[in-house]
């Protein structure tokens, strides 16, 4: 994972979010249950928009807007285990008018565990596609300065 | 668990709901994660009110009513494991004006795994206590004919 | 959804697994949380191998074998909601020596909600790749050309 | 919540653990799903023993020891919502030879959301009761009279 370290040092725009693995995250195989990595990636996205000053709760309550995942392509390389500390690294690949493409990796120190491409959309309470609010767009576009490969 | 078999044969009012344990339910200890029994008990309650003709979805959408758990006292006796088929057995202990008391056991065949007492309330979208709708009250009261101890 | 209906009528080998949406599956957006569709797909895979006589629990305990997902590409088309009954439809795309490729759709009646491609591998307790046990291979291969409805 | 504030000021030994509410924690009622508070309480217990130098992972792997919840009595007073930051406050009530009794509250600032009593036991891989390892006993006993920093 020298690669990852280099990408960070080079200042490519990446959001890093740390979390710990608890019993609730594991399964009888002794490792993190595969669906739970999607929870970790969503926590990182929430943190990212929060830090950019976006209030998802208010957007939901006042404007009825939500930002559901439209597609998620995830590759599982190595498992995370109980009490591991992992990092979700998020890079913006593309910010469109009504969708956002992200690369989200989960790492344990410099070891890549999962690798995902995620597309978010914007919808209203009736599920109709809506243009992204400017603040949400900015939250992600502000990060898109890096080369964002993944 | 002869006791349980007898209670059933005697016609005491009990709702029985079967479910299977999947990987998602287990943890690295190789057994069902302790919080997940509360999910199983909630599935059984949903099934119970559905069978009584109550449409929780409509009550939420049209009347803003929900039936949250106000307290849950649960005892863990033996663990359920991957691929076990378990039964949630629900008995009504008391139907009040604004709350319902249930006894909910989880069993694997005739073996008692967990034992819980659950109190449900009725609230509106603002969290204010409301009287139970008649149909919900009837759904549970219809069951309360048995002696229902547990 | 004519497409899907046609595929079924044409006798393509598909495993169908029904499940209900409970409160635990939903989120504050009022719809099923995106990670939970992966749980549904895993329940269907467990049901599929169980019906083929494979005992995952024994394989884990005696041989230390697990069948983790190596990749999952999922597209979210429409959301499932509280109390919906949905069907997970699984078709085998390819059975290799050490991996299995599946197509898994989640439908509400004839409406396609999510669409996924899933690759399973076989590993031992140390995470080393292993060849698929013959019985597991047969469980899936039997579907790849057969009529396989369930 | 003057009560709680007072207890803190009085220097009673309490472990405090902060966490944030994500979409995964909520349900279609717009609030945290009731089973998930048990996850929060377990995260706090893991943090508590970790800080005391106990390695649960090693105890599981080398000695086959686990510390399951034997009973949990939880009262739900007010709901937590999306993006809330909550605190799990843990106090030791009693450390016995083979079990530990805890009081675990979940608070949002000075507002008490849930209130629980939890009993932990020690078992081996076959589910047989075992005496608590000295280090685990000390982790909790150290709190029972200490000043409870976090």
Q: Helicity of chain A, in percent?
A: 25-40%
Class per helix and strand makeup of chain A: alpha+beta
Coarse shape of chain A: globular
Give me the side-by-side strand order of the main sheet of chain A: 1-3-4-5-2
Outline the low-pLDDT stretches of chain A: 1-12, 146-150
- Summed up, the domain count of chain A is 1
Termini separation of chain A: 12 Å
Give helix and strand order of chain A, one letter per element, not per position: HEHHEEEEH
Report the CATH topology name of chain A: Thiol Ester Dehydrase, Chain A
Question: What's the rounded overall pLDDT mean of chain A?
Answer: 87
Count of alpha and pi helical runs of chain A: 4
Tell me the number of strands of chain A: 5
Largest interface: A-C, 25 and 25 residues
Q: In percent, how much strand structure appears in the residues of chain A? A: 25-35%
Q: What do you see in this structure?
A:
The structure is a homotetramer of 150-residue chains. Chain A is an alpha+beta fold and 150 residues long. Helices cover 27% and strands 31% of the residues of chain A. A five-stranded antiparallel beta sheet of chain A has the order 1-3-4-5-2. The radius of gyration of chain A is 16 Å and the shape is globular. The two termini of chain A are 12 Å apart. Residues 1-12 and 146-150 of chain A have low confidence and may be disordered. Chains in contact: A-B, A-C, A-D, B-C, B-D, C-D.
């Amino acid at each position: 994972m020298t690669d990852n370290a280099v990408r960070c040092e080079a200042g490519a725009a990446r959001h890093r979010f740390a979390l710990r693995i608890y019993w609730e995250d594991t399964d009888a195989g002794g490792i993190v249950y595969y669906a739970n990595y999607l929870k970790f990636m969503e926590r990182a996205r929430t943190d990212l928009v929060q830090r950019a000053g976006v209030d998802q709760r208010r957007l939901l309550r006042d404007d009825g807007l939500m930002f559901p995942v439209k597609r998620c392509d995830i590759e599982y390389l190595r498992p995370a285990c109980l009490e591991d500390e992992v990092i979700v690294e998020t890079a913006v690949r593309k910010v469109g008018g009504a969708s956002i493409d992200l690369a989200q990796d989960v790492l344990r120190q410099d070891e890549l565990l999962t690798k995902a491409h995620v597309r978010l959309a914007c919808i209203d309470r009736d599920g109709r596609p809506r243009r992204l609010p400017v603040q949400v767009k900015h939250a992600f576009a502000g990060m898109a300065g890096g080369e964002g490969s993944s």
